[in-house]
Amino acid sequence: MKYLFEIVCVLLIIGIFVLTQVVGNQFYFFIGFVILQYMVLATAWNILGGYGGYVNFGSAGFLATGAYTSVALINFLDIGLVEQIIAGGAIAGLLGFVTGYLTLRLRGVYFAIATLALAIILETVVAHWDYVGGAAGTSILPKRKPELFDIMVVDRKTGIFANYKEFLFFLMGTVAIISVWIARYIENSKLGRGLNAIKDSEEAAECMGVPTLRLKLIATTISGAMMGVAGAPLASYLTFIDPLSAFNLEYAVNAIAMPMIGGTVSWMGPVIGALLLGTAQQVSSLWIQSELNLLIVGVLLVIFVIIAPEGIVGWFRKSRKGSRG
Amino acid sequence: MSDPLLRIEGVSKHFGGFTALNNVTTHVNPGERFGLIGPNGSGKTTMINCVSGLLRNEDGKIIFDGKDVTDLKPHKRTGAGIARSFQIPRPFHTMSVIENLMIPAEFVGHHRGEKTDDRAEAMEILETMGMADKAEDPTTDLTQIELRKLELARAMAAKPKLLISDEAMAGLTGQEVDEVIDILFKMNERGITIIMIEHIMRAVMRFSQRIICLDAGQLIAEGTPEEIVKDKGVERAYLGSTDDG
Ligand SMILES: Nc1ncnc2c1ncn2[C@@H]1O[C@H](COP(=O)(O)OP(=O)(O)OP(=O)(O)O)[C@@H](O)[C@H]1O
Ligand SMILES: [Mg+2]
């Protein structure tokens, strides 16, 4: 069936909506949001890193760009969540484009270092920008001037969602599903095949007619925009934001680790990686400190690089092929 | 005689203080089988990189099919009809053999038609190469000669007017060399102009209608195979070089 995947996507979005209506325990939405956010981040990373072979070490910078775009616009215009997500995606997409343009001559480890540097520069800028709270951070109250739309959407009695946690969870779930749909679409498109060729040999790709620069710019823009979208609701979710939480190392590490562990060749990889690693981290964080959490990710990554370098998806494909032939 | 397909006019290329190509001027006629020889490090690959656009020449012009392509990106030149193989094979190693051919078919394709046509054409190219049975194999399973053939097959899938083969035969056995020469002859019969870079003299001499010889970035001789064999400069370049050539 041609639109089976799309139908499943719509059903999943409806399912997420139903969850917000029937599940009473807000804790599930609280941790579910983080896992979904990671799913978007990992999927975004994989478009450039998995398909195109360009390792972005600065994912936290793009995510924080989305988050701080929201903060600035909340302060300036007091806009709602949906508008924040659109704006955050647009600004982070622009940042992705500029980054792509400035680093297009850099390959391999040099590109990775450049993206890391970008995140550090952005963090420094934000830490000195008092309008969005500077280094000390700022509190975000969910919409100080509630509008009609918001009252309809989030209100204990009359709204669709009883509170902001449910609304945030639903939004991030929808965003995650759309992101995965986009990634899958790219994977099966001319863009995806061109990015794969770039990953395998950029010079051969260029000599075989692939407009490498254009495809890389499209990839950095889409990937950056998706990371910004993942970050845009962060301030509303945490109700407080500072550079430390927005530029957290965990984002950069997980954005790479989740696709690597799940498998970078397919859209399924980042999804599986985010579900497994994200859930494990959220559950373990109830008992363990977040620093230890990172250590666990690191160890897992090493194990996977050694025993299943193509991730879970790659491992499954290989073992299926092996049993056939 | 019709206009040349490729004109290289006063092309120079430097790497830092080192001159890899020094004011080279030559041309290749449509339908010609053109040989490019020279000792190791004489600038053959550099010249091909300038023609295909991977390197930008600092001086001079590259004219292809009547158009100045000097400032065009490589993929645009491929679109204009220049395709090349790489001396050290650079397959798209995460793809199957036929997928390798589908990349140029899809990207160079002038929006001709259906994907299925591309596939059929790619299969046809693989058949002429005797690689049809490898179509679905991953490139990581290929032998050295198969990788060389894949380089040529992939370049062919770009539907070039000019095919540049950069040492497609290095390291192959005598029989394999003949096989590759046959393939190149077949392509030439279809009207594709071919530049063959080769160290194996027997191969270039048999294949080429006209040959140029580079030495230390200088064009030192140009002529028919017979003239090149007798050329004193060429002899000196090869004997004088420290490599076995
Ligand atoms: N990117 C580069 N940077 C610096 N020097 C280079 C570069 N590419 C080539 N060279 C130098 O330019 C000279 C010509 O190299 P080129 O690869 O064109 O030789 P060649 O004729 O193809 O040799 P071979 O027969 O060994 O393939 C060599 O001395 C090489 O070291
Ligand atoms: Mg060479």
Number of strands of chain B: 10
Biggest interface, chains and residues, is:
A-B, 20 and 28 residues
Low-confidence stretches of chain B: none
CATH-defined topology of chain A: ABC transporter involved in vitamin B12 uptake, BtuC
Strand count, sense and closure of the main sheet of chain A?
2 strands, antiparallel
In short:
By secondary structure, chain A is mainly alpha-helical. Chain A has 16 helices and two strands. Chain A has a single domain, classed as Orthogonal Bundle (ABC transporter involved in vitamin B12 uptake, BtuC), CATH 1.10.3470.
Give the topology, please:
The complex is a heterodimer of chains A (about 325) and B (about 240).
Chain A lengths: L3 H19 L3 H26 L7 H19 L3 H22 L5 H20 L10 E2 L8 H6 L10 H24 L2 H11 L1 H6 L4 H20 L2 H5 L1 E2 L1 H4 L2 H14 L5 H17 L5 H18 L3 H14 L1
Helix pairs in contact in A: 1-7, 2-7, 2-8, 2-10, 2-13, 2-14, 3-4, 3-5, 3-10, 3-13, 4-10, 8-10, 13-14, 13-15, 13-16
Chain B lengths: L5 E10 L2 E11 L4 E5 L6 H9 L6 E6 L2 E2 L5 H7 L1 E3 L12 H12 L6 H14 L15 H13 L5 E5 L7 H16 L3 E5 L3 H7 L2 E6 L2 E6 L1 H6 L1 H9 L5
Parallel strand pairs in B: 3-8, 3-9, 6-7, 7-8
Antiparallel strand pairs in B: 1-2, 1-4, 4-5, 9-10
Magnesium ion binds next to α1 of chain B.
